[in-house]
Amino acid sequence: MTDTTTGGAFGGLTIDFGGTAADTEAAPVEAPEAVATGDPVTARIVIVGAGPAGLTSAIYAGRAGLDPIVLGGHEPGGQLMLTSEVENYPGFPEGILGPELMARFRAQAERFGGRMIDEAVDRIDLSTRPFRLWAGGLEYRADAVIVATGASAIWLGLESEERLRGRGVSACATCDGFFFRDRDVAVVGGGDTALEEALYLTRFARNVRMIVRRDAFRGSRILQERALSDPRISVEWEAQVAEVLGETKVEALRLRDSRTAEERTVAVDGVFVAIGHRPNTDVFRGWLDMDEKGYLVPDTTTASRIPGVFIAGDVDDHRYRQAITAAGEGCRAAIDAERWLEEQGVLTADEVAEVASSMPW
Hints:
Layout (H helix, E strand, L loop, with lengths): L3 E2 L8 E3 L3 E2 L12 H4 L3 E8 L3 H12 L5 E3 L13 E2 L9 E2 H14 L3 E3 L3 E5 L5 E5 L2 E10 L3 E3 L5 H5 L5 E2 L2 H4 L7 E5 L3 H10 L5 E5 L9 H9 L3 E4 L2 E7 L6 E6 L5 E5 L2 E4 L3 E3 L29 E3 L11 H21 L5 H10 L3
Parallel strand pairs: 4-5, 4-11, 5-8, 11-22, 13-20, 14-15, 14-20, 15-16
Antiparallel strand pairs: 1-2, 2-3, 6-7, 9-10, 10-11, 12-21, 17-18, 18-19
Helix pairs in contact: 2-3, 2-8, 6-7
């Protein structure tokens, strides 16, 4: 794979997904042996997704001797690849860049035998075991599958918004609100997510300006009342963001009136886009249970309704959406999968004992 560069949003840092950070060139991903023969690639467990949940699953599955294959998609690393400074992940008191944190996750998974394939799954068959998944023109077969494909923030689709992500544009107040202490910020959206983000930001920001394209909120009544009664929150009704202004950081917004198309500029130091998230679950539609928004619904613990298929991370979590909670679910899913495989006789008691004796638990 080519190297993943943060494009200026993270000070020009280049992440080498071969396991180190700050190198200028990334090591290529080694293709499976089946490339030459066209035969299916077999594994005890395949993990779909390479964010905090997927890579934590790979760490635990690797330590259990399961030799996991991780199908990471075309944008491995998840949403932390769009995050600059991460200060709320335990173990990094000085903070760490999001891409560097994910590079460390990946290196640790590879240390325990995780095989990383940066290809997206485009077709699956979960009707029988071994389960079958197709990615990058190859077929993968697995006795167990962990789905950790995450969810992606819905953005406005502006060039200026994309250019200034990590430089004042964010989709997570819990992640980045701390950086805007005593600053003026804007929250784009009128639903529950936007109202929750705006109320949270009042802990840090001097003023929170909500940008709502309609003449009313869509969120719950209690959140509306709290926002409207908070002296730090103001609302720009019937307004849309036409452009995020600033060269190296956010300096202002150009707003367009939804009725008259008139434009005006408002000064802000940060913009939080809160118009929702989209779970990356399309390929699993019809196979796994989903709610009305497309998030996967586990059956028990991390198990899905299909025995041997497990779920972890933001793909089913639309409440917390934090790296630490995703990693925790990845741990749970790997342990659940390991125990299930042992129950099925795929992972024998002797193998469990052998792995336990060889690992520095």
